[in-house]
Write a structure and sequence with these properties.
This protein is elongated. The protein has 5 helices and no strands. The N and C termini lie far apart (57 Å). By secondary structure, the protein is mostly helical.
Length: 159
């Protein structure tokens, strides 16, 4: 038995989502942005505490004014901006930066343990740096906020 396929329900022009509606759906809502910022601050605080009480695996570095902090912040922000070309959602871009930062820190620890300087473990600059990872993520979140504010200003929307 053959039956005629049902036609798709037609939408009135008021119900069709506009390009602006689709773009707004891709940006983080203010509540989500605030929650993400609080989560980053908590991660940073935990990283500083863990760095002070670390063993052989974690990097005990807790200096927030050292050169590596600037390098990690720049790397996290640049990676987030570069990820905009491929990844559409802000939370996914930040997660990508966190994953990449964790891989880099794990690789640094592996190199320290197995090849270059196994005697430096437990000293600042050696091991898996939670502080460095938190700086990467904080820089990615900051880049997301700055870019979303700039794009909102360029579009003429009030924020």
């Amino acid at each position: 038995m053959y039956s005629e396929p049902e036609s798709a329900p037609s939408l009135s022009p008021a119900e069709v989502p506009t390009t602006q509606d689709r773009q707004q759906a891709l940006h983080l809502a203010p509540a989500k942005t605030r929650a993400l910022g609080i989560a980053v601050l908590i991660i940073l605080a935990l990283a500083l505490c863990a760095a002070r009480a670390s063993g052989q695996f974690l990097d005990p570095d807790h200096c927030l004014t050292c050169r590596d902090v600037v390098q990690h912040a720049a790397g996290g922000a640049v990676l987030d901006v570069a990820a905009r070309l491929v990844i559409k959602r802000p939370a996914q871009r930040v997660a990508f930066v966190a994953f990449t930062g964790a891989v880099v820190e794990l690789a640094q620890w592996d190199v320290d343990v197995h090849t270059v300087r196994p005697s430096c473990l437990g000293k600042p600059g050696c091991g898996f740096g939670l502080k460095d990872l938190a700086i990467d993520v904080a820089a990615a979140v900051a880049a997301e906020v700055v870019i979303s504010r700039i794009s909102a200003l360029l579009k003429g929307r009030k924020t």
